[in-house]
Specification:
Elements (H helix, E strand, L loop, with lengths): L1 H13 L11 E9 L2 H12 L12 E6 L10 H10 L22 H7 L3 E9 L3 H5 L10 H12 L3 E5 L6 H6 L3 E3 L2 H6 L7 E5 L18 H12 L5 E7 L2 H6 L3 H22 L5 E11 L3 E4 L8 E3 L5 E2 L3 E7 L9 E2 L2 H7 L3
Parallel strand pairs: 1-7, 1-8, 2-13, 3-4, 3-7, 4-6, 5-6
Antiparallel strand pairs: 2-12, 8-11, 8-12, 9-10
Helix pairs in contact: 2-11, 3-12, 9-11
Bound molecules: zinc ion (ZN).
Length: 352
């Protein structure tokens, strides 16, 4: 008997993967679009005078993720989001269909959670059918098939919560026809009530305002959208939400360090909102990562708190550097190793 116990102990210590992990009740998957390691460093330096100081940098699990797509060392947001959402590498521009391959729709993380009876949410500060949100609940050969992506998002993929900026093929009338309670500004967002079960926030004509310009008027900031989303989605069976800080990338393409830092700080605010909500819970997993780096940024000199660091940009496009990964909460230790961007789906869907 003693020998048997010993054997069992050795088995579990040596092969922890054999112990089947349980699916967390809530999974919160946060993506900083274009947020490489130097973007994180620059924002921490500006906000607090030192690197390593953003909200998510104190998470217990820290690692990095390889981002290349099926046809390029430098991915675009569509291929990267498809890899994260479905566990399959596709060509740049492709939205969650098997290309290369048979061209069929790929099952997404959101589909898996819905099948488990959980509520699902897709939230971005970019326009609602931009590549990252689209890949979690729609399918197309090209990311610019905007009308088709909108149709699928509203009527087929149909996340319970869909928050983002206005976009082609989506408007409050169509969303209402698809069964959504619709908000168009901060005030109407705050009035959305939990009994609806389908909530849309379509804020402004396109992407949300840039944090650096501060011209929000009646529109919500990313962290305010996140706070409301958590309030709506929290339920007995749990939920999955993909939250994208979508404008770090836009500032990176413009090589605008001031805007880049402001967007990264607001993304960190959104993570803090999530952490505050989750801190006393034992049933929630929070993942913070990026789809790719944008701009080839290097921080050259820390000029102190509230001062912009000296930086160098190498391009106006994406780069192939590994992106950071932070995880907190139940099962977070599963991410404590260098990952490929297809591993998120593989790890999460292995849980029962
Ligand atoms: Zn980009």
């Amino acid at each position: 008997m003693k020998r048997l116990c010993c054997f069992i102990v050795i088995l579990f210590v040596s092969f922890p993967a054999l112990a089947q992990e349980k699916m967390p009740k809530n999974v919160i998957f946060m993506i900083g679009d274009g947020m490489g390691p130097e973007q994180v460093k620059a924002a921490g330096i500006y906000l607090n005078g030192q690197e390593g100081s953003l909200s998510f940098e104190s998470f217990p699990v820290k690692s990095e993720v390889m981002t290349k797509s099926a046809d390029s060392d430098v991915t675009d947001s569509a291929a990267a989001a498809t890899a994260m959402a479905t566990g399959v590498k596709v060509k740049n521009q492709v939205v969650s269909i098997a290309l290369p391959g048979d061209g069929k729709d790929l099952k997404t993380m959101a589909d898996i959670f819905r099948e488990q009876g959980k509520l699902t949410g897709i939230l971005t500060s970019s326009y609602a059918n931009d590549a990252t949100p689209a890949c979690f609940c729609a399918h197309a050969r090209k990311r610019d098939e905007y009308e088709e992506l909108s149709r699928q998002m509203m009527n087929v993929g149909r996340p319970n919560l869909l928050f983002g900026g206005g976009c082609k093929g989506m408007n409050p009338v169509l969303l209402k026809e698809a069964g959504y309670a619709v908000a168009t500004d901060r005030e109407s967002m705050d009035k959305l009530a939990a009994d609806s079960k389908y909530w849309a926030g379509l804020f402004g004509p396109s992407i949300l305002p840039m944090e650096k310009d501060g011209n929000f008027d009646k529109l919500p900031h990313l962290s305010q959208m996140v706070k409301k989303a958590l309030q709506l989605l929290d339920n007995d069976k749990g939920f999955f939400i993909m939250i994208e800080g979508g404008l770090i990338d836009k500032a990176g393409h413009a090589n605008n360090i001031e805007a880049n830092i402001a967007e990264t700080i607001e993304f960190a605010n959104a993570v803090r909102t999530v952490s505050d909500w989750a801190k006393d819970r034992k049933d929630t997993l929070v993942i913070v990562t990026a789809d790719h780096e944008t701009g080839g940024l290097t921080v050259l000199k820390n000029n102190g708190k509230d001062k912009y660091p000296d930086v160098e940009w190498k391009s106006k496009g994406h780069s192939g550097v590994n992106v950071p990964l932070y995880a907190w909460g139940i099962n977070s230790e599963a991410f404590n190793k260098p990952l490929d961007n297809t591993d998120f789906f593989k790890i999460i869907t292995s849980w029962k």
